[in-house]
Design goal:
The complex is a heterodimer.
Chain A lengths: L3 H24 L33 H13 L10 H11 L4 H24 L7 H13 L1 H24 L6 H21 L1 H4 L9 H20 L2 H23 L1 H9 L1 H16 L6 H6 L1 H5 L1
Chain B lengths: L8 H12 L2 H8 L1 H10 L7 E5 L3 H4 L10 E5 L9 E6 L5 E4 L4 E3 H13 L11 E5 L17 E7 L2 E9 L15 E5 L6 E6 L2 E3 L17 H15 L3 E9 L3 E8 L6 H5 L3 H8 L7 H11 L5 H8 L2 E4 L1 E7 L6 E8 L7 E3 H6 L8 E9 L2 E14 L2 E10 L8 E3 L7 E4 L4 H10 L1
Parallel strand pairs in B: 14-22, 16-21, 17-20
Antiparallel strand pairs in B: 1-6, 2-3, 2-6, 3-4, 4-5, 7-8, 7-12, 8-9, 9-10, 10-11, 12-13, 15-16, 15-19, 17-21, 18-19, 19-20
Helix pairs in contact in B: 2-3, 6-9
The chains are: A mainly alpha, B alpha+beta.
C-alpha cells in the first residue's frame, strides 16, 4: 500500500495536470468553486493544440488579468479591523506589483504548514521544509511533468556520476569533485533541452534558468543524503519528497484557493499561524508511527 | 499496549529533548572530540585518541606508519555513522591497510579521506569539520558468534540519571560490519535488570535467530552489565544532558568504554525491547536520584523484563499457596533470610514490614528508591520504597517494595499482584502451614 500510493499519485499528475492546466486556460471560467480536478471533463477536444500553460511565477497577461479583475470586483468595508491587508494589496497592485506574486507569497506559509503537518501528523519525512517547498515552486513555474522529468534527470545524473567516479577510482578533493558533478549535471540538463525538438513535451521550451538552478541545488542535497543512507532509504526519501511537493503544488495551483487567499489574506495568514502553533504542540504518535509500532500496540 | 506509552518523534523532541537538553550540552554531544574531552575529565573510560586533524596542514607531517595495526578514522561531527573507516590490520606487503570490509587502502586514500572530512563532506550542512584517529576496540569474546566482523555496541537511554532502556546493535553482513540499524544491523533488546538479551529486530521485523543461522539471539548475557549502566549514567552527568542515548562498546580487556553521546536517540529501541519508552520516561521524570548507583538500582527494580511468558512455556503456570515461604536477599553479601509471605491478590505492590527490612539492612540510604505518600484508613503516611530481591517458588524477582511501619502486620511481607505474573494462587491455606509460620515469627 505504502509503495503503490506514491506511484498512483505520480501517474495521476502525469496524466491529468498538464491537460487540466490547459483546460483551465481554454475554458476561462472564473467560477470561484472550480478546482482543476473537475476540469478534465471540460476538455473533450480530442486533438488539443499545444497551448502555452500559464506560468504564474511570471508577470504576463494570462497570469495577472483574472486576478486583478477579481480584486476589482470585491467590495470592501472599512480598513480596520478586518481589511488592512486587502487595502494594502490593492494599493501595491495599483502601483505595479504583480498580484500573482502576492498570491504565491500568501500561499507559501500555507504550503510550509502543509509540509510541516505531513511530517508531524503523518510522518512523511522528505528533506526538511525548504526542499519540498522549493520543488513545488519549481513545479508551478515549469509544470510538474517537466519539473519531475528534469529533477529525475538531475538526480540520476549526479548519482550515476558519483558512482562512476568511485568505480574508476578518480580521487578528488571534495569541492573540485562537487563542481565536476555539477558539470555533469548541467550536461544532463542540456541534453534534455537539446531533445526538445524531438520529444515535444509542452513546457520544455519555456524553461527559465532559475527553476533549473534551484533543481540543481536541490539535487546536490539529495545525492549527499543518499550517500549516507542505504539505497532503500534514499529512494523512500525521494518519493516522499516528491509526494510532498506534488501536494504542495496542488495547493499552490488550486484556483479556488488562490482566489480565496487573494480576497481574504488576513484570514488565510492568521489561520495558518494558528495552525502552526497548534501543530507545534502536538505530541502524539504520527500516522506512520502507528504503523511502525503496530505490533507493540497490539501486543 | 496503549499508544500513549510509546515514545514517538514528536513527543521525544518536544516533551523531553527540548526541555531537558540545554544547548551547551548538545554542543558537547554533537562533537565526538568534545565528548571525549568531557568524558575523560570526568574519569569515564573512552577509546584512546591517537591523533587529531584540525587543519589540513596537520596531515602533512603525520607518520601513518607509526600507528598501531588497527585503528579507526572518524569525523568529529559525522552524521549517522558516515565517514568512519575501520582499519583492522596492515596489508601483508606493508604498503597499505585492510578495512573491516576487506578493502585495501593506501596512505593516499586515508589522507584524501581525512581531507574530505575536514572539508565537511560528512557533517551537517557541509560545515568544516575535524577528523581524528581512534583506538580500535576489538570484539568481546561474548559476542564472537553473533556479530559479523565489526564490534557490536550497546545503546543505553538515560533519563534523569536512570538508565531506562537498552539495546545491543549487532553488525551483520548487510550492514558491512557497521552497527547502524538503518544500514542493516540487528537491534537486540536487553533487560535492564539482568543484562540478558530479550527480543530482536532486523529491518523493523522481529527475528529470533541470527539471519541465515539457527543461533538464538535471546538469552545472551552481556558481561559487566552493572558497570555499563553506571558508566552510562556517569556520562549523562558529565555531559549535562537530560535525555540521551549513550553508545558503549565492550573492550575485551579494558571493559566498557563510551563511544559517543546522542541527544536525540532513535525510537526503534522500543521495538527491540517490545516496551514503550514514554511510559518509562514519565515514570522516572520526577524521581529524585542521588547518584549513578542509586539510578541503576531504581532502573533494575522498575524495568525488569517480563520473562514470565518464556518461563510459562518452559515449566507451565505454577500454582502457589496464599502462604508461601520465600527467600529474601539481604544487603550484605550472602545474607539470605527465609520468611513466610502472604500472597495478597488484593494488593498491587509488594510491601515489607519495617522490622524485617531493617533486620536485612535494606533500609539504608543506598537501597531506598524513593518515598511515597500512601493513603489509608489511618490517614496519610510517608513510606519509603526500597529495592527488594526475593525468590518465590524458585523464581527470582526484583521489585520496588513499600516499607510499612505498622507492627500489626500478621506476616512480615505481603506479595502484591505486580509480582505474581505467571502464578496461580490457591486460596486454601493448610492449617499446619499457618502454625509453622506463627512459630517462625
Amino acid at each position: 500500500m505504502k509503495k503503490i500510493l506514491p506511484l498512483l499519485l505520480i501517474v495521476y499528475f502525469f496524466v491529468f495536470s498538464e491537460k487540466s492546466v490547459c483546460a483551465q486556460i481554454k475554458t476561462e471560467v472564473p467560477s470561484p468553486t472550480a478546482t482543476f480536478e473537475s476540469e478534465p471533463t471540460a476538455s473533450p477536444d480530442p486533438t488539443p493544440e499545444p497551448t502555452p500553460r500559464v506560468d504564474i511565477t511570471q508577470k504576463s497577461e494570462e497570469s495577472i488579468g483574472p486576478l486583478e479583475k477579481l480584486l476589482n470586483d470585491q467590495v470592501l468595508g472599512p480598513v480596520f479591523p478586518a481589511n488592512p491587508l486587502k487595502y494594502a494589496i490593492r494599493a501595491s497592485v495599483k502601483a505595479g506589483v504583480p498580484p500573482n506574486t502576492i498570491v504565491l507569497l500568501i500561499l507559501l506559509p500555507l504550503i510550509a504548514a502543509v509540509i510541516a503537518a505531513a511530517r508531524h501528523i503523518i510522518g512523511l519525512r522528505g528533506f526538511g521544509i525548504f526542499l519540498p517547498a522549493a520543488l513545488s515552486i519549481v513545479f508551478v513555474a515549469i509544470g510538474p511533468v517537466v519539473g519531475l522529468l528534469l529533477f529525475l534527470v538531475i538526480v540520476s545524473a549526479s548519482t550515476f556520476f558519483r558512482m562512476l567516479l568511485r568505480k574508476i577510482k578518480i580521487k578528488l578533493q571534495y569541492l573540485p569533485r562537487m563542481s565536476l558533478i555539477l558539470w555533469f549535471v548541467v550536461c544532463g540538463v542540456l541534453l534534455v533541452l537539446f531533445l526538445a525538438p524531438l520529444i515535444k513535451i509542452p513546457g520544455l521550451t519555456n524553461v527559465s534558468i532559475f527553476p533549473v538552478l534551484l533543481l540543481v541545488l536541490l539535487a546536490e542535497d539529495f545525492t549527499k543524503l543518499q550517500l549516507g543512507k542505504s539505497a532503500r532509504t534514499a529512494v523512500s526519501f525521494i518519493t516522499e519528497t516528491i509526494i510532498l511537493s506534488l501536494i504542495s503544488y496542488m495547493f499552490l495551483t488550486m484556483q479556488s484557493l488562490q482566489r480565496y487567499a487573494l480576497l481574504n489574506p488576513e484570514i488565510t495568514l492568521l489561520s495558518v499561524a494558528v495552525f502552526d502553533l497548534i501543530l507545534g504542540k502536538y505530541t502524539g504518535l504520527r500516522v506512520l508511527e502507528y504503523w511502525r509500532f503496530r505490533k507493540l500496540i497490539k501486543g | 499496549m496503549k499508544a500513549q506509552n510509546i515514545l514517538g518523534l514528536n513527543a521525544r523532541t518536544q516533551l523531553f529533548s527540548y526541555q531537558y537538553n540545554k544547548p551547551k550540552s548538545k554542543r558537547i554531544a554533537s562533537s565526538k572530540l568534545l565528548t571525549e574531552k568531557v568524558l575523560k575529565k570526568a574519569g569515564i573510560p573512552t577509546p584512546l585518541i591517537y591523533k587529531k586533524f584540525i587543519k589540513p596542514k596537520d596531515i602533512l607531517n603525520f607518520d601513518w606508519n607509526g600507528l598501531p595495526e588497527a585503528f579507526v578514522v572518524k569525523p568529529s561531527r559525522g552524521l549517522g555513522g558516515n565517514g568512519i573507516i575501520v582499519i583492522k590490520k596492515r596489508s601483508k606487503d606493508k604498503t597499505g591497510w585492510i578495512t573491516t570490509s576487506r578493502k585495501k587502502l593506501l596512505e593516499e586514500d586515508l589522507k584524501l579521506h581525512v581531507l574530505d572530512i575536514l572539508e565537511g563532506a560528512f557533517s551537517m550542512h557541509n560545515s568544516p569539520d575535524a577528523a581524528f584517529i581512534q583506538e580500535y576496540v576489538p570484539r568481546h569474546k561474548a559476542f564472537r558468534k553473533y556479530a559479523y566482523r565489526g564490534t557490536p555496541d550497546i545503546r543505553i537511554i538515560v533519563f534523569n540519571k536512570v538508565p531506562v532502556m537498552a539495546m545491543m546493535r549487532l553488525p551483520t553482513k548487510d550492514s558491512g560490519g557497521r552497527a547502524n540499524l538503518h544500514q542493516g544491523a540487528i537491534g537486540v533488546g536487553v533487560d535492564i535488570a539482568t543484562g540478558i538479551t530479550t527480543k530482536s529486530i532486523w529491518y523493523g521485523n522481529q527475528i529470533r535467530y541470527k539471519p541465515g543461522t539457527k543461533r538464538k539471539l535471546h538469552g545472551i548475557k552481556i558481561p559487566h552489565w552493572t558497570d555499563i549502566l553506571k558508566i552510562a549514567v556517569l556520562s549523562q552527568e558529565a555531559s549535562g544532558l537530560g535525555l540521551l542515548g549513550v553508545d558503549i562498546v565492550l573492550h575485551p580487556t579494558k571493559g566498557p568504554m563510551v563511544l559517543e553521546l546522542n541527544y536525540q536517540p532513535g525510537t526503534q529501541i522500543q521495538l527491540a525491547n517490545m516496551a514503550g519508552l514514554r511510559k518509562r520516561l514519565e515514570r522516572v521524570e520526577d524521581l529524585k536520584v542521588r547518584d549513578a548507583e542509586h539510578g541503576v538500582k531504581i532502573a533494575k527494580a522498575l524495568f525488569m523484563s517480563d520473562f514470565s511468558d518464556r518461563v510459562k512455556a518452559d515449566e507451565g503456570v505454577k500454582t502457589i499457596s496464599s502462604l508461601e515461604e520465600i527467600k529474601i536477599k539481604g544487603a550484605q553479601k550472602g545474607l539470605r533470610k527465609k520468611v513466610y509471605a502472604k500472597v495478597d491478590t488484593g494488593a498491587w505492590r509488594t510491601s515489607i514490614s519495617k522490622k524485617l527490612a531493617e533486620e536485612l539492612g535494606l533500609l539504608n540510604q543506598n537501597n531506598i528508591l524513593w518515598t511515597k505518600e500512601f493513603k489509608s484508613s489511618l490517614g496519610k503516611e510517608e513510606r519509603p520504597v526500597i529495592s527488594l530481591t526475593f525468590w518465590l517458588a524458585g523464581r527470582k524477582i526484583t521489585t520496588p517494595a513499600s516499607v510499612a511501619k505498622r507492627m500489626t502486620l500478621k506476616y512480615p511481607i505481603i506479595i502484591g499482584r505486580k509480582n505474581l505474573k505467571g502464578f496461580l494462587v490457591d486460596p486454601h491455606i493448610p492449617i499446619d502451614k499457618v502454625k509453622e509460620a506463627r512459630e517462625k515469627k
